Amino acid sequence: MTSLLASGAAIPGRLEPTDLQLKGGTFTAVIGPNGGGKTSLLRALAGVEPAMCGQVWVGEEELREASPARRPYLMSFLPAARDVPWSIGVCDAIALGLPRPEPERVDELITLLELEPLASRSVDRLSTGERARVLLARALAPRPRTLLLDEPCSNLAPYWAHRILEILSTAASDGAAVCISLHDLSLLDAFDRVLLVDNGAIREDGHAQEVLGSSSFSEAFRIERHGTGWRINPSAGRQSSR
Amino acid sequence: MRLAAALALLVLLAAGALLLPWMPLATLWTSDPPLAALVLFELRLPRLLLALGYGAVLGALFANPLASPDITGASSGAALGAVLGGYYLGLTQPLALAAAGAVGAFAALVLLFALAGRRADNPTLLLSGLAISLAAGAGTSLLLALAPSPFAFYDAFDWLMGSLVDRTLGQAAAALVPAALACAWLVRRTRAYDALALGEDVAASLGYRPATLRWETIILSAVAVGACVSVVGAVGFIGLVAPVLARSLVHGHPGRALLPAALLGALLLLGADLVTRLAPVGRSIPLGVVTATFGTPLFLWLLLRMRWRLTA
Questions:
Q1: Pairs of CB atoms within 8 A across A/B
Q2: Are B252 and A86 within 8 A, CB to CB?
Q3: What are the chain A neighbours of B206 within 8 Å (beta carbons)?
Q4: Which residue range is the domain that position B253 belongs to?
Q5: Is A86 in the B-facing interface, judged by CB distances under 8 Å?
Q6: Which residue is closest to B68 within chain A, CA to CA?
Q7: Most distant CA atoms of chain B, gap in Å
Q8: Cα dihedral A98, A99, A103, A107 in deg (nearest 10)
Q9: Is residue B295 in some structural domain?
Q10: Shortest Cα–Cα distance, A197 to chain B (Å)
Q11: What is the pLDDT of residue A140?
Q12: How many structural domains compose chain B?
């Protein structure tokens, strides 16, 4: 199984130099407060940030050196924004993820994400949640070795938040390195590994319960465990960046 | 099927553009065949080629996600560049004027992106393009008013409204060769434009370089629009109408819209030129008036649809 390896990946002013390995077959969550650097980390790992420094390798291949014909198979990135600037059909939008036409794969994804009733519509005429499923299908289309998804479960009905985690978990079981950012802490038990990102750096890296019980977590999120839920951490200081 | 119908219509219109009005040509053909050949090949053929080429260029250029609708100011910038080159820098060669037009279009596009910002949305781009278009139009009028030649306004009137009349094959080549090369280069980028349909981040993640692509598009659009405008003048609405119609034919797929948009652009401009020649009003109607006549209602419909979508 192929791993993603980042060496000194950084975005000046937003993400400190980061060394990270995401192993194939693992399902990783990135959590952190608003503005903490989750999106910057994913953008740097995905090589889509123009100001990025450092290198990212998928297996033996440097990501940013890979050609458009090769890159979709190495990594798929899903931005948090669900806006589609162009009026494009659902099937065509999914097919954009594939370097070569594969109508059977598009049909497979339409079935997987239950998009059949929407298949003939334009993406810009769908609701945010429906659009999220189409854009996820585009990211899954080439069966990439690495999936980096920024908040794929946001703005979704509970069924779809859980169903998408299930689909991504299956992709990880099939050998992909899957890494997603999310805000819903109740979903973390589905992950093999959790990264806590705050102030532009990875502050904790471990299993969900280890990270959730850490002092870094309490400081970053300014909440703490209380019974089966959470409460505001009275000792956490206000930070100007949040 | 629709493509075949459009092609058949194009061939029909092209034949019409060469042979209509038929009577003078038929009379000349019997009385003075060399003169008839001259009319056919020196007057009507360049006109036909320019209509086909310029229409196709406008359609194809405006069909890609980077240039639509944000190259609104390019034609006006090109006109300003060509007037400056022709009346103030003494340029007379078609290629030199085409280069002046390209420089003007390039300056307008650079200004547009500087004003609207890299991640500008369509309304911002439209408004910025409109402002640049108006400013360039006013600049062109000022330059013509202050031009050393007292007949500058009169000379430029037909050209400013867009005209295919009395262009030579040399002028047609000066406009169409750079435009065709620029368009061929852009057509090679079809996959990249497709990727941009889902935004710059997705395009970058698929291995394309949106910033490079944007500059490539700006420069090549400037070359194509500048070269055509310097010969034919600024013809409005074709670049708006053809891509919109083409997109609706291919369900919004940007890459697949390029060639139909080129075909529709050619059809529309050729049709508009035939109207200018055949309308029974005593003299030729300026080309820009005809394109505006059918383009304005469509533009208004698009605005209403955009407004409806924003409020829906």
A1: 80
A2: yes
A3: 68, 71-72, 96-97
A4: 2-7+47-311
A5: yes
A6: A86
A7: 67
A8: -10
A9: yes
A10: 21
A11: 96
A12: 1
Q: Which helix (H) or strand (E) holds A178?
A: strand A177-181
Contacts of A97 in chain B (CB under 8 A): 206
**Coil, helix or strand at residue B44:** helix
Mean pLDDT of A108-125: 90
Question: How distant is the Cα of A108 from the closest Cα of chain B, in angstroms?
Answer: 21
* Three-state secondary structure call for residue A198: strand
Burial category of B135 from C-beta neighbours within 10 Å (exposed 0-12, middle 13-18, buried 19 and up): middle
Q: How far apart are CA B174 and CA B46, in angstroms?
A: 11
Q: From its phi and psi, is residue A56 left (phi > 0), alpha (psi between -120 and 50) or beta?
A: beta
Domain A4-84+144-232 is classified in which CATH homologous superfamily?
A: P-loop containing nucleotide triphosphate hydrolases (3.40.50.300)
Tokens matching residue B193: 């434009």
Task: Give the pLDDT of residue A39.
Answer: 93
Write down the ipTM of this complex: 0.87
Nearest to B252 among A43, A77, A122 (CB): A122
Would you call B198 and A68 a contact, using CB atoms and an 8 Å cutoff? no
Instruction: Locate the domains of chain A by residue range.
Output: 4-84+144-232
> Does residue B28 lie within any of the structural domains?
no
- If we measure between CA atoms, which residue out of B248, B243, B241 comes closest to residue B271? B241
User: How far is Cα B132 from Cα B137, in angstroms, rounded to an integer?
Assistant: 8
> Which stretch of DSSP H or E encloses residue A147?
strand A146-150
DSSP reduced 3-state for B273:
helix
Would B83 be classed as within a structural domain?
A: yes
Q: Is residue B194 part of a domain?
A: yes
- Using an 8 Å Cβ cutoff, are B114 and B120 in contact? no
Where are the alpha helices (H) located in chain B, listed in sequence order?
A: 2-19, 22-31, 33-38, 45-62, 74-83, 94-116, 122-145, 152-160, 169-187, 190-196, 200-205, 210-232, 238-249, 254-278, 287-311
More confident residue, A205 or B191: A205
Work out the average pLDDT over B60-64. 62
CATH of the domain at B246: 1.10.3470.10
Partner B contacted by A135 (CB < 8 A): yes
CA B176, B184, B269: angle at the middle one, nearest 5? Answer: 45
What token pair was written down for B163?
């005209």
C-beta atoms of A79 and B196 within 8 A: no
B64 interaction partners in chain A (CB closer than 8 Å): none
**Residue partners of B124: CB distance under 8 A and separation at least 6:** B116, B117
Q: Do the Cβ atoms of A123 and A164 come closer than 8 Å?
A: no
Mean pLDDT of chain A: 89
- Looking at chain B, the whole-number percentage of residues with pLDDT higher than 70 is 76
Tell me the pLDDT tens digit for each residue of B170-207: 888 888 888 888 888 888 888 888 888 788 888 888 88
Q: In terms of residues, how long is chain A? A: 242
**Alpha carbon distance B192, B211 (integer Å):** 12
